[in-house]
Structure formats: C-alpha cells, structure tokens
Amino acid sequence: MSLNSYGHLFRVTTWGESHGPALGATVDGCPPNVPLDEAAIQVWLDKRRPGQNRMTTQRNEPDAIEILSGVFEGKTTGTPIQLMIRNTDQRSRDYGDIAETFRPGHADITYWQKYGIRDYRGGGRSSARETAARVAAGGVARAALAALLPGVEVRGYMVQMGEKTIDRARFDWDAIDRNPFWCPDPEAATEWETYLDWLRKDDHNSVGAMIEVVARGVPAGLGAPVYGKLDTDLAAAMMSINAVKGVEIGEGMAAAGLTGRANADEIFMGPEGPEFSSNHAGGILGGISSGQDIVLRFAVKPTSSILSPRASIRKDGTAAEVVTKGRHDPCVGIRAVPVGEAMMAAVILDHFLLDRGQTGGTRGQIGPPAS
Amino acid sequence: MSLNSYGHLFRVTTWGESHGPALGATVDGCPPNVPLDEAAIQVWLDKRRPGQNRMTTQRNEPDAIEILSGVFEGKTTGTPIQLMIRNTDQRSRDYGDIAETFRPGHADITYWQKYGIRDYRGGGRSSARETAARVAAGGVARAALAALLPGVEVRGYMVQMGEKTIDRARFDWDAIDRNPFWCPDPEAATEWETYLDWLRKDDHNSVGAMIEVVARGVPAGLGAPVYGKLDTDLAAAMMSINAVKGVEIGEGMAAAGLTGRANADEIFMGPEGPEFSSNHAGGILGGISSGQDIVLRFAVKPTSSILSPRASIRKDGTAAEVVTKGRHDPCVGIRAVPVGEAMMAAVILDHFLLDRGQTGGTRGQIGPPAS
Amino acid sequence: MSLNSYGHLFRVTTWGESHGPALGATVDGCPPNVPLDEAAIQVWLDKRRPGQNRMTTQRNEPDAIEILSGVFEGKTTGTPIQLMIRNTDQRSRDYGDIAETFRPGHADITYWQKYGIRDYRGGGRSSARETAARVAAGGVARAALAALLPGVEVRGYMVQMGEKTIDRARFDWDAIDRNPFWCPDPEAATEWETYLDWLRKDDHNSVGAMIEVVARGVPAGLGAPVYGKLDTDLAAAMMSINAVKGVEIGEGMAAAGLTGRANADEIFMGPEGPEFSSNHAGGILGGISSGQDIVLRFAVKPTSSILSPRASIRKDGTAAEVVTKGRHDPCVGIRAVPVGEAMMAAVILDHFLLDRGQTGGTRGQIGPPAS
Amino acid sequence: MSLNSYGHLFRVTTWGESHGPALGATVDGCPPNVPLDEAAIQVWLDKRRPGQNRMTTQRNEPDAIEILSGVFEGKTTGTPIQLMIRNTDQRSRDYGDIAETFRPGHADITYWQKYGIRDYRGGGRSSARETAARVAAGGVARAALAALLPGVEVRGYMVQMGEKTIDRARFDWDAIDRNPFWCPDPEAATEWETYLDWLRKDDHNSVGAMIEVVARGVPAGLGAPVYGKLDTDLAAAMMSINAVKGVEIGEGMAAAGLTGRANADEIFMGPEGPEFSSNHAGGILGGISSGQDIVLRFAVKPTSSILSPRASIRKDGTAAEVVTKGRHDPCVGIRAVPVGEAMMAAVILDHFLLDRGQTGGTRGQIGPPAS
C-alpha cells in the first residue's frame, strides 16, 4: 500500500517536491512491447508546462523528461519505468516568510500539523508541480492505450472559468487547441482572456475552473463492482489532483434534480450493438463502461496564492498578513486540463488490464448469433 | 488487491447478492479491545432498513446482523470480523423477463457485457441491498471511533430531492431524525412527502436526491499526500455507492465559480488552536484534515426501476418495453443517508489508524510553547 | 491491504476462530463462468478433515461448506464468493487453565502481548482450524484452474516425519491416497503408523514433518520480477500456514552446498519447445515459471500441544506446568498436505490471471518460425 | 498493487536495469523527522559494493547514492524518498551472443517467454545489481529504526559456502567485519578464501552459500495473523532476492525432524518479562514476535554465469554452448549478506508501523500489576 500511488495493475507512484533536485513517477505494470520514448511523453508535458503564455505562471522550465528504466530499444519491457524531470528553475531566494507562515487555503498548515516538518520551498510536495509527474505517467498510459486499444481517445477542456461558462451551442473540438484555456468555445476563450488579465493585474485575484474530460472508444465491460468501479477510480483520480473540490460523472450533481423517467438512457439495437438514446449515465452503468463516451467534470478551486492580503497566523501563533508575490497561476484550472486527461488515460488502461486479467476479455453476446 | 474492498488499514470487503442466501462484510483491521456486539450494529441497519415507511421499498426484512468472528466476550480481538445478514424475503417468483431484458439506466447490460453471466434476481450484486453490508461495517467503524476518537460525530441528511431543496435558514439538527427523509428542514420534509406520494402513485416515476454528510470533531492531521488524500478516499467511498453520480467537498463544484479572495478561509489563533473564518475547504487542505468540520455532498440519481414504460432491448437484440413492477424505492437517495454516514465513519477511522502508523500521531506545534 | 488475505487478483481473505460460530473465506477475483458447487469444494475439505483416522485429532465435524454468494446456477459470476463452515463440535468446557496460561511453542503469549485480548478457546484465530478455510478457497482455485488451465495438476505428499524420510526409489504416485500420511512410499507409511501410535500413546509426544508439493503442467511465463515472483508468493503462502518454519524451491537449502556446474539445468530443444536436463531450479527461473514441474517443500514443526508437561508461566507471571489434554494431532503436518496443495493452486491461478492482465499472455517465440 | 514493491506501510518499489542509465528505489511511508542523508545510506551500499576484493565481481562502480526527494534539511518529511544510483561502468561491448542465447540457470529464457522482449545487457532487471536498490532502501529503514526503535540491531553473516560450514563453537561477532565473507568463524574464512580462489581460477566454477540474519531487540508484538505474519513477510522478502532458493526461521527445515518435547521453548518469568529456555521458534510465535532474537537463514544458489561450458539453445531453437566470460561473482551469496540485512530491517520497520497503526502499541500485561 502506498499513499503516493494510484492504479491496480497499471500502478503509478509519484515522488518529488517543487524545489527539490527532481520529481518523477515510478510506473509499474505497463505491458511489454509498447513503443515508447521520451518524445512520446514530452509532448504531453509541453502541453502542461508553465511559462508558455501569460495565462500561466512565468516559471520557465523545460520540464525535460528522462526515462531511466523499463524501456529497451524503444519498447517497454514490462519492468518498472522510471520517469524523472529535473527541477532547473528553483530560484534561490529567502523563504523565511513562507517557512513560518501558513497561507490561507493552502496545505501549509495541515502538512505542519500532520508531520511536524514540511518542505516549504514552493509548496514542497503539495505544489501543483507534482502534476507534471502525473502527466508524464499519463503519457505512458496513452502509449499503451495506442498499442492495445487504438480506438480510445481522451480529450479534456475547460467549460467554466469563475462565473463564466461556455455556450455548448458553440462547442468546437477544433477550437480546443487554439486558445490558452483549452476552451471549446472560441468566443468564451476571448472573453476569458480579457477577464483573466484584469483579474491578475488589477484585481490581484485568482479564479476557479471547471474541466470536462471525455473518453471515446472505450469498449463496454471495463470496471468492476462494487468498490473497484470505473467511476470510483475516476473520482479518486480526479479528486487527488491539487485544488480539485468536486467530481461528477454524466449528469453528475444535477442527477439529484432529475426524475427517473428523464434520467433513463433508453436502449436500442444498432447495427453494431446496443445504442442509447442519451448519455445521462456518462458511459458508466453499475461501475462498468457501457461503450458510450465516458464523460466527467471536475471543479478546480481558485489558486490560494494571491497578491491580495489575507489574514493568517505564524507557527508561533502570532497573526500575519499573507500576500503571495511569487509566480503563480491566476487560474490553476487551465493546467489541470492535461492532468485530468492523464489521469483518465491511466484509469482506463488500468481497467483494461484488470478486465483482461479477471475475465480474459470474454463478453456476453447481445443480439442474434452471427449466422 | 480486491475490487470489492475499501480502506487501507481498516479494510472492508462486502459480498453477497440481493436474492442469494446472505450478504455481509468481512472487516479486517479493526483495532482490538473495542466494545462491540450485534446491537451496536443493528441500530444502524435499522436506520437503513427498507419497509419502515411508505417512502421506501416495501420489502420487509429484519436485516438481522450476525457477528461470526473477531469478537470475544463483547470486545474485538484484532482478527477479522465477519458480519452476515441472511436474506429472508426473497419471494420466489418468475424472473423470466428480467433475465432476458436489460433495464434502462441499470447495470443489467454492463454486467452481462463484462461477465457473460449475471445473477439477475433482484439486481444481484448491483442491488442497493449491498449497502446493508456497508452500513454494518460502518457500525464497526463507529464503535472503533467511539473507543479511539470519542469526540467524532458523523451525521448525514438530505438537502435536496429532485428540484426541491432545503432552506438552510430553517436547518435544525433535531429535525433530521423526525421525518422519513432525514431532512433537517421540517417544512421541506412535509412538502417532500406529498411530492413523493404523488410521484410514486400518480406519476409512476422516481426522483434523485442530494445527501450531505458532516463529520465533527475530526482532529487535524488525518489524510496524506497525494493519492491517499482524505478527500480522495472520501470521494471514492461515496462514488462507490450505488446510483451516486457526483461527490463534492466543501464548496465543491461551486468552487469553479469563485475567486481566490472569496474562497480563502482566513486563519486566526483561537484559545485552543487555529480557527478559520469560514469553511470553503470543507475541513480538508492538501488532502489532510484541518480540524474543521468535514463537509461533503453526493448526488444520487433517480431509481431506474419505474412503472413508466421505457424502451430497451433483450439479450437477443430484439426491442422490449420495460416496466418495473417490483418493490422499489421512488427515491433511493433516502436510504443513502445512513450509507454515506457509514462510509464517512469508515474512512475517518481508516485514516486515523494510518496516521497513527505513519506518524505516530506526532503533530507540529502551533502557538507559543507551553510555559 | 488486509493482513488476513493473500493473492493479487485472486484474493482470499479468511476469517473465523476455532470455537466461534463459523469460519470461512471471502474469495474475490475468481473469473466468471467457472463451474462450481459445494461438492467441488467439499471433496478437498473431506481430505483435510480431522477425525478420519487415529492419526489425526478426534474432533469430529462434518466441515460442511456453504457457498453464500458469487455463484449462480452452478457457475461463478465474477463477484465475491463467500465460503462458510459452521463450527459444530465446540464442546462446552472449562477453558479456565488455557485462558490464564501460555502454552510453550504456541501463539498464546504473542497474541496476548500484541492485542491485550485473545480468544483462547481452542487457540482462537491461531488454531490450525483456520486452514479449513484455505482448503475451501483452494477448491475454488482448483475449479478455476480446471476451467482455464486444464493441464495443471497439483499434488502434495509427506516426504519426512520426524527423523524418518521416504526412500525416493520407492516413490509411487498411486500410493499417496492409500495411507493416512499421504506418503508416496508405502513401506515408510507402514513404519510411520507404528511410530506415530507409539509417539502419541506411549511417549506423549508429537513430531514434525516435511511436505512436498508439485505442480505439473504450469505454462512458462507465470510470475514477475522482482517482488511479485512466483517463488516469492509461494514462499509466503506456505510460510503463512500454521507451524511452518521453512520453505524451499527446487534444490532449496541444499543449493547452498552446490557448485554452479552441478546446479545448472542445461537446456535442449525438444519437439514441443525447450527441455531441461534436470530441475534443480524447481521450475522457476528469475521468479517466472519455466514450464518444468514446480517443486517445493515446507517443514511443519511438531504440535506444541502435548501430554508431556512443559514449564511455562501464567498471565500474572507465576510459574505453571502445562499439559495439553485436548484432542490434538500428534503430527499436524499430515493435514498440512491438502493445505499446501490449496495454497499452491491459489498462487498459480493468481499468477495466471496476473500474467493475462499484464502481458495478455503473449509469449516470446523459441524455435524456428512455423513454416 | 505493484509487483516490484514490498512492504505494507513502509513501501519500497525498486526500478532499473543493470546496464540502463540508473537504478533506484522509491521509498514511500517512511515516518517524518527521521535524520537521513546520503552518507547514512552510502555506508551500506559500500558494504555491498562489488570490486572491493577479489572475492566479488571486478565491476568497479562507486554506487553513489542520490536522494532526490522526501528529505528536507537532513530529515525525512513523510513524503516519498527517491533514491537513485547512476550506472557508470556499463562497458560498451558486443552483446550479440547474450541477446540470442539463453544461459542455463538464468532468467534469460523465462523473461523472453513471458514478455517477448528482454533487456539482455548484463541481465537487465534480473541482474543482482537490483539488490543495490534494496540495500539503499534498507539504509532508510535502518535510519528509521534507529530513530523509532533504537534497541534493534540487524546483523547478517555467512554460515556456509558450498559444502563448507562454520563451526558454531568458534562463532565470533567481531570476526564478521574482518573478512570478505562476513563469516563469524575466522578459521572458516581463511579456508573459504583458498577454496574460492581455486574454484574461480582453476575450476571455472561457482558455489552456493547460506546466509543467517539475526535481529536483536525487536519488541514483542510485531506481526499479525494469518497472512501478514512477520515470518511470512520475512520469507517473501528473502525469497525475492536473486538466486535465493530457500528460507527458514528458527529451527527451520530441521523442525520436520524434531519432536514436540524437544522443540518447545519453555517459558519462565524473568526480571523484565517472559524469558525462554531456548529459541527453536526463531523469535516468532503464531506470526508475531516474542521478544527473542529473530533468526532466519536463506540459501543462495551458485552463480549460473560460469566459465565452464554448459549446453543451451538460442532463440531460434538451435543448440549453443554457453561460456560466460564477463565479470561475475564466484559466490554471489557473499554480497547477499547486506541485502538480507536490508530486507530484514525493512520488514521489521514495516511491522512496527503496522502494529502502531493497528493496535496503537498497546500490549497485554504479563506479571503482577506494578504496585
């Protein structure tokens, strides 16, 4: 049991602190013979990397991935894959204030209360920088999915920033990669840019966000009752991301407001198998994938580190006013998009391997026997 | 690794099908010397038990708990506790339709797709009846908490049924046990009763619900970065409950709409330690409890089994119209209240044991050294 | 994590005390569609059952297995299988002495030291009676192997009792089931019978034993580096059996005395794949099965409960002379034979499922490509 | 679940191949505030390091440890500790033969059969070089034991090399560190040196060994029934080491030859608690430590890589004669001494943490109440 790990057969353990020498992920259980090299992982890290535009923190690091084990002649060997990213831009500085003061809304105080010691440099282990290791591990998961379940596609995007939501009528898959918010609504993206500039520069504030992640092409039958459910593992995966405060599948929290008649996804027989009239379930029934798109959303709270002063205390109990001056994302949710994708990819791969182990991938037949 | 288990040191595995001879929970890792007997568990099962009023299914079973192991002379011994509930009211009947037809919104189709076999009687393993085993295990967790962390109190209640929500201004802790909805707003409870009667009898429909669970008195320091977070485990625990589609902690999904200034819980030094100006965080920072109330909500979708006809298919691919005539809860969320409480209690106990193991319970001091 | 469980994907948790109401095993991860009923398990329990002859304890219980879940219409469903055996012959008696006194060589004292409470009736959880649950779970493993790997055969037998060993020149597979010792050497069996009668009745003593278990027909490729090795899991499985003090694979402890030239199993190409000149390795290389017979031995210490007086102490620290009068096996190793078989079957099944999950069962080719 | 990990709360995952860029260990669950730096680990690595004398392989690498995470200002923080050792002496060479041919007694063939790919350079993941990572992790375990259980001392030594065993009458703790075999019998050590020189240079052979590891000062109460036993975990830990073929606790395999009267460790009340007349049990009763010395032995087979030709096959099925010319230990058991110590230390720490979590360290009292 490791509290810094996730996954059953595809098992990822991340390690490292924000301002230590390096951080990374130990990936165990990746199937053998999967084509993999640094470039296949770097592309996802570049997507998450800070400093690419003024919307995210100006910390400028290459986040270059090194594969230290588990790959031979361009293919995975079935042994643990060690992924390492050197921290190159930890500016030497006076951490005195941070060392003694607890930032409101931060893990500073709870780490201290739990451990009686904390690496306060840049937030240490609680920094969002940890998610770089998740994205790297997600790159391995994507490579394995490409080899084993080539039809699966995992896409994430932002659907809300603060009080501003996208207009689903303008949803455009192609727009996602064309704006710094991974926003599928180009008009919303333009509006968000203006808003975020004002928020950061003038309001000295930050803002929350809602991310949606969709997996297409996932075969029916992945998942398991009743605690190893696909949605249970997805919920845990997303909730484990820094600053996430809520997770929902399909209708999600709105399901509380629906009636059974409205919520039921009716079933019809299509040319290639069962089809559904709708997807209130978000692609999961009883914890097992139905073959529909898997759809989830998670909420990312606003960055706690802001330029506006907030009341707090020091370790010695005296009052302090906290103003965080460092380089911080005004909307940490933006970078949560590739992180959510990475976690989704890892969970799907994991359940594919589990299902293969437990059932051998046999499926109950639906429809008349092939003649 | 077991996909029918949850918990790290306090490890619960549930087993059993709705219409099999029995169901239960294997509870491993309960500390020794905890006073425990059947009565201490039965009280929680009685709270969840169906057939108590017309708001829940009329299946009438005593749900009598038997402790088969792990308890000696009224105390736990540190060995596995086996909890068994006999199924006594599985009416013999013709299951023919259910066996061949997939109910919309149900796990019928995904179990079949995954396993190529399913115990269709009463939903088998996917039945909400499985939650009786969770409530029994939660009874053990509560007994252990009472012995080890006597200040902890876990309470759940319904805050929404369909489109109808409670008025927080009328929130009354004492009202919760006085109505069949575990509703803290007595006026809302009266309204819900009328609505649910109509829904079931006239509309032949069902409805979703939102449950809130609060844990008071949880000490600071429980939880762990970064995948064994207290909120990660709570999210997984709640999402694993049948029909749950979303989970949120503190501000939850609404955190996406907030700014950092609004969301930060400012910290002050109180007479007995740190105090917070608000609880947007829901009592958890960086995955670790802060000492504030832990507050979560989860959404339960409306029961799929309704009297209104819905379109579906049979195993052979032919179209079918499904009308579920059996005894079913019009709002399965009602009975999810004690289930959510049970899961919360189990997770808190588990993290208390984990913390004791990993840190020995040492805490960083806040405030001036005692003179 | 459960300390009363073993297995990765085929996960068994046993529960129950010697003189409680029942004991059993929760079996999670059994593949679906495996034919299974009580009779298929009972046959193995009958093999282990005490009271069959004067060589084992006279406790006379039917040890009737009940399947409480996970099986539907004679086949496994992929959900947890609960196996229960009622304890029917716990004679009411005065346990006063046992309650206060620690038997030498027994877990009495360590259970008390660890937990500060112990179910002393019949040894409680530390009783060899727990192995009935293992044998039942092994019955499930055997059924699954029969369905999924039909060529696998697991056989155990006694090769040593006290200082008396079998003569390998007289090894006869057919003899094993024809004597109460599961001894493959009929002459040794006759001698052992006389010896054990004398030991029990006249010498008031007990004696140790060595068990060998062989698995034939296990395909190459099961196991994994470097802590999930097949031999690692076999060693753990056997060492977890009551009274076992040593485990060895292939040459085992004798490998310390060999040279590399003597120990190497040379490889030749046979008509159906690689063949080996010998099997010093016991069928496992680098933690992975080679296709040869898997051969292990484990040593069972003599029963601590004997009629000869031994010095000990009571809980209050006063000296006591312990004479155990109850019904006890003079050679508990005899009944360890079916237990060792059960554990071997469970480990092999588990690694078959693991391998299927992790590699999909793909194998490196040896030999010329098929033309 | 990770097949490259061991431990429950103190969880170690090793990674890396013999000739890859680096290898290491991810150590999760180390308690916070343990003093730790590179030097504290390096001392154990230096003990295991090859090239120190002519008894071990001449591969000459500094095996310099780097701590990449989890330590702050000289103390552990409770977050994962990443330990890395760069591989600096992988001579570039022609691996052609090894790539296509399976060495007898080696994992070459089973890795190929399982994965269909293998990093053949220096044995890849199956190389004994992996044990450097174990020793590093063991260094962390030792540091934590020193902080939490300062009385515990773990010592290993060789008691047999080939057919040559030590004379226990000459056992001298101080001799262990004074010869290249970690042999407690100085006369035997001298004899072994001559023998091993001849074996390597003239006989072109290798030889097996028996290692004994003793832990003193382990408190009573560590371990747990019935699969999380202390001896179960020790057996697994030792069997997981490369080339180990057998493990035994206390009397071990010899227990099969004893009678109950001879084997029982009688108990007496000493001034500070229970004392035992002997230690046949090896310090463990019912899977739980008794406070006596924990004593185990494990057998290491002779190195398979020898200069004498052995028959084998190539991947294409053709016959090959294998002569291994590289740098190889004639007795790999020598370097297994610090590895066995490291595993013992890790298991004891793990069970200390587990016990603290599960029981809070409460103990049953033995002796009269303090007046």
UniProtKB/TrEMBL annotation, chains A, B, C, D:
* Pfam families in the record: Chorismate_synt
Q: In which pathway does it act?
A: Metabolic intermediate biosynthesis; chorismate biosynthesis; chorismate from D-erythrose 4-phosphate and phosphoenolpyruvate: step 7/7
Q: State the reactions this protein catalyses.
A: 5-O-(1-carboxyvinyl)-3-phosphoshikimate = chorismate + phosphate
In the Enzyme Commission scheme, what number(s) does this protein have?
4.2.3.5
- Bound cofactor: record note: Reduced FMN (FMNH(2)).
Q: Which domain of life is it from?
A: Bacteria
Keyword match Flavoprotein: yes
Protein role: This reaction introduces a second double bond into the aromatic ring system.
UniProt similarity note: Belongs to the chorismate synthase family.
Q: This chain belongs to which protein, by name?
A: Chorismate synthase
> What is the scientific name of the source organism?
Roseisalinus antarcticus
* Gene name of the record: aroC
